[in-house]
Amino acid sequence: MKRRATAARGRPSPTATTGLAAALACAFAVWTGGSWYAVAHDERAAFARTRDEVLQAGEQGVQNMNTLDHGDLARGLDLWEESATGDLLKELRDSRKQFERQVASAGTTTTAKVLSGAVTELDERAGRARVMVATRITVLAADHRTSTKDSRMLGELTRTPAGWKLSRLGQAPVGDAAGPSSASPTPSGS
């Protein structure tokens, strides 16, 4: 009679151990995949990503619209137009020549640094958002004097095929002013 090799009593056979390890690995893979799927399809996570995109686009747009070098106006104004859409873009294009003359004549260079920003409203379905951005704007005059001012800007953004862009921009009210600013949506880049 032939004898089959068997595992000692109380110890699982190597085949059983391998099968158990494979079953545990499969269960872990299913659990990990399910967790990944849930996170990837979580509406709150998607909303947070959109909010972050809006904030980044809003801060960059406000910084762009408040930065302009009189020595390289074409590049700066092109950047303004790339940051804008809708009525704001139309206004920038309509007043570009006049603005170029004013800035070239004044010989000023402005630079903006974003201090902080926040999304104050986001409607993903409509593709509209609002941001408030605090900036520090430094103006270098033709006589090489500098002045610095902190400013709060309110921006409206619209989702475009190229991403979120500013559709309105104005100063935020300061002090006891009631209600939103009725300032023109033109940038303060000079």
Automatic annotation (TrEMBL):
Keywords: Membrane. Residues 172-190 have a biased composition (Low complexity). The keyword Membrane applies. It is found in: Membrane. The keyword Oxidoreductase does not apply. Residues 154-190 are annotated as: Disordered. InterPro entries: NTF2-like_dom_sf. SUPFAM superfamilies: NTF2-like (SSF54427). It comes from the Bacteria. This is Nuclear transport factor 2 family protein. It comes from Streptomyces crystallinus.
